[in-house]
Amino acid sequence: MVHLTLRDIAKALDLSVSTVSKALRDSYEIGEKTKKRVNEYARQHHYYPNRMAQSLKEGKTGSIGVVVCSLDNTFVAQMLDGIDKVCTANGYNIIIMQSKESHSQEKACTGLLQARGIDGLLISPASETPDVEHLLALQRASLPIVLFDRLSNDIDTHKVGIDNFQAAYQATHHLIECGYTRIAHLNSDIRLNITSERLGGYKKALYDHSIAFESTYVSYCNYSSASQLAQDIREALKRFMNLPNPPHALFTAGDQITTKSIGIIHELGYQIPADIALIGFSNTELASSLYPPLSTIYQPAYEIGQLAAEKLIMLIKDQGKRILADEFETIKLPTRLDIRSSSHPFQKAP
C-alpha cells in the first residue's frame, strides 16, 4: 500500500510542502479557503500524518495518559467522556489505564505511560495508594499532572472534584428531614480523602440535628474486586439489620456501593423503603427506572473530566513557566440531590 505524503498533496494542489503542512496543522498563517482545500484532499485520499516524525520534531507525542480506579463504573465512564471531548478538540489522543484500586498497579500504569512519552497525566488515585511519591517523582521529571475526583493534599497541582462533605451532609440531612434518626452509612476504603470527607458530612448532619453518632451504624467496603465489594456490602447489611436497634435508613457513599446495595437488600428479604430507606451517590441513568426509584446524589462527572483535561492542557502549553503553589486551583463542583421513592418519609409501625 502506497502512503500519501505531504509532497504528494503539495504537487497535486500546486502548493508548497510548507503550506500543506501548516494547513493540516490549522496554522493562522494559512487562509481558510486553502485549509479547507488541503484538508478535503487529505481526507478523500486517506492521508494520515506521520505522528512519530512529528513527535521527534516537536518533542511531543500528542498523547495524554489517564489512570482511573476501574472502567466498569458509570461515573468513571462519564468523566472519561468529558476528558475525551476536550483532548480530541485540542488534538490529543488519550491512553486510558486502570489501577483496580492497587497502589502497585497504579505505579506500573504511570511508569508505562511515562515510557510512552505522554505529554501529561490525569489521575484519580487508587484507594490503596498510601502516598503520592510516585507522582511527585513524575512532576520532578517535568511531567504535568492533574488530579481528578480523588484529590490529595500532598501534591501541588490543579485538582478537580466535588464538595464531598457538603454532598454527604445534604444526603443525611434529607433522610433526617424525612423522619429517619437511625441512619446507617456504607463507605469505601477509609484511606481515601473522599471517604473521610463523606463520613464527616454524615457525622455533621447528625450532630446538627442532635442525633448521636453510632459507630456500629458505619461500615467500609473493599473495592478491590466486584465480588469482594458485594461480599462486604452483604456482610455489613446483615450486621446492621441484626443490631438490637437496626437502622431505618441507609446512606451509601459510592456509585457501585449504591447500585449493588439495592439488589442485596432485596436478596436479604427487605423492602425499600418500608424496611430500610436508601439514598446514595450514583450517576446511573436508570435511577428513576429502578424499583423503587432511587434517591441519589448526582455528581457532575462529565464536567469534572472536562475541567481536569482543560487544566492539564494549560499546564502542558505553559511548560517551562514556573508556576507557584498558590497558583494551582482546587475546584469543587456542586452536586445535585435527586429525591425519589427510595427515601420516602419514614412511617412508624402502628
Describe the structure.
Helices cover 43% and strands 15% of the residues. With 350 residues, it is an alpha/beta fold. The chain has three domains: 6-49, no CATH class; 61-162 and 301-334, Response regulator (Rossmann fold, 3-Layer(aba) Sandwich), CATH 3.40.50.2300; 164-299 and 337-343, Rossmann fold, CATH 3.40.50.2300.
Question: In terms of topology, how is this protein built?
Answer:
Layout: H1 6-13, H2 17-24, H3 32-44, H4 51-58, E1 63-68, H5 74-89, E2 93-98, H6 103-115, E3 120-123, H7 133-140, E4 145-148, E5 159-162, H8 164-177, E6 183-187, H9 193-208, E7 218-220, H10 226-241, E8 249-252, H11 255-267, E9 277-281, E10 295-298, H12 301-317, E11 330-333, E12 336-338
Parallel strand pairs: 1-2, 1-3, 3-4, 4-5, 5-11, 6-7, 6-8, 8-9, 9-10
Antiparallel strand pairs: 10-12
Helix pairs in contact: 1-2, 2-3, 5-12, 8-9, 10-11
Beta-strand fraction estimate:
5-15%
- Write down the domain tally: 3
N-to-C span: 80 Å
Number of alpha- plus pi-helical segments: 12
SSE class: alpha/beta
Spatially, the strands of the biggest sheet line up as 2-1-3-4-5-11
- Provide the CATH topology of the largest domain: Rossmann fold
Tell me the major beta sheet: 6 strands, parallel
Mean pLDDT: 91
CATH class of the largest domain: Alpha Beta
Number of strands: 12
Give the H and E element order: HHHHEHEHEHEEHEHEHEHEEHEE
Shape: elongated
CATH architecture of the largest domain: 3-Layer(aba) Sandwich
Could you state the CATH homologous superfamily of the largest domain?
Response regulator
Helix content: 40-55%
